Every structure is written in structure tokens, then in C-alpha cells.
Amino acid sequence: MIGDASRVLAKHMLNSAKDLLPIVLVIAFFQVLILQQPIPNIGEMFVGLFLVVLGLTLFIIGLEMGLFPIGESMAHAFAKKGSVAWLLIFAFSLGFGTTVAEPALIAVSKEAADVAASGAMIENTTAAKRSYAEGLRYAVALSVGLAILIGVIRILKGWPIHLLIISGYIMVVIMTFFAPKEIIGIAYDSGGVTTSTITVPLVTALGVGLSSSIKGRNPMIDGFGLIAFASLTPMIFVMAYGMII
């Protein structure tokens, strides 16, 4: 039993090391051949790389054992129950809850508030910056929740994902001309912080599980694309937030 577990862990670690190898080679190439500087603390770096490989391995195993089965089983259960309202409530809550607690979003919101205060967009007080950061954070979380909700409706109705994404980016381009220039960069970055290590697996599993449960749906065609839409809507909401605030 222990031997089998060790072999599985070793196999996953080897795959993780292969995934990280291109990154290591690129850094080593530019450090040694382009910058022509020695690699500092090479011993500590190898220890750090080992810990990264181990962490990535355990994370992937955790996804396969926990998050993906949970997302798929809940999608199957909601589809079997036949309650569209509860499914949509769950989809919105999943997108909102996982995003509002995302550490990267919290950090970006605080940094945006500091920049806004230094640029005289808001008062340079702790209360004003906290209010601005929390408003930005909840605007992004609300947009992701709405995106997942619309994405689930898309799966149920069979709408093509590319039409939603194209329409969304057209709206982003239009709003860019009217939004305050100080908020545009924050809006574009906010789309990236939503793709967290918790949101992506759960939302992907939800989409794949739901499309697998509906007759006539192809999980490869209909199950994916939720994350792309979830990364798009924060740009729209943050620019709207900048126009209002």
C-alpha cells in the first residue's frame, strides 16, 4: 500500500518537474548567457525548486481527489434534482464566494486604493482607501458570480460561448474610451486575479459535470469556457465602478 502510494507520488512529482523544466531553462539561459551573472544561492534555489515541485504535485493530487469530484458531483446532483433556480443560486454563490476571498484580489484592491489616494482620485485617509478597496473587491466578485450564472444558463440553453465572449470584449473596448484612464489598467488586471487556484477547478468541474448531465451536450464543447467569461466580466464591472466612483 505504501509502496503503491510512493510510486504514484513519484510519478506525479516527475510530471510536475517536467512542467516546470521550461521555466527553469528560460531563467537559467537569460541569467547565465544573456546577463552573464552567476546564479546566487544555488543550493537554496534547488531546495526551493524541490519544494515548488512537491507543492505543485500535492496541489494537483488534491484537485483530482477533492475539488474536481466535488464540483462534478454537485453539478450532477443539481441536474438530477431539476431545480434550475437552486442551480443558478449555487453558480452565483460559487463565483462570488471564491473570488471575494481570493488573496490576489485583496492585494490588488489595496494597492489600487493606495494608487488612487496618491493620485488624488480619493481622499488619502485610511477609511477612504478601505472603502475604495472593498468596493473594488466586491465589484469584481459580483461580476464573477454573474459570469458563472450566465455561463450556466449558456450551458442549459446551448448558447455558443464565442458569441458571448466576442460581445463582451466589444463592450470592454467601448467602455475603455469612456472610463477614467486611471482605472483602465486596474480593470484589465482584475480579469487575471479571478483565475485563482480554487475558482478555476471548481468552476471547470461545475461546467463539465453539468454538460455531462444534460442529454445532447458535449462536455468538451459546452463544459469549458466559463473561466474565459469569468475573466472578462471584471473588466466591465471595474470600469463601470471607476465611472461611478
What does the model show?
- With 245 residues, the chain is an all-alpha fold.
- The chain contains 10 helices and no strands.
- α3 packs antiparallel against α5 (126-157), α4 crosses α5 (126-157) and α7 (181-193) packs antiparallel against α10.
- The longest helix is centred in the first third of the chain and has 40 residues, at 42-81.
- The chain is globular.
- The model has no long low-confidence stretch (mean pLDDT 81).
List keywords for this structure.
globular; 245 residues; 10 helices; mainly alpha
Report the oligomer: single chain
- Residue fraction in strands: under 5%
**Biggest β-sheet strands, sense, barrel:** none
Run of helices and strands: HHHHHHHHHH
Walk me through the topology.
Layout: H1 2-34, H2 42-81, H3 84-100, H4 103-118, H5 126-157, H6 161-178, H7 181-193, H8 199-213, H9 219-222, H10 226-244
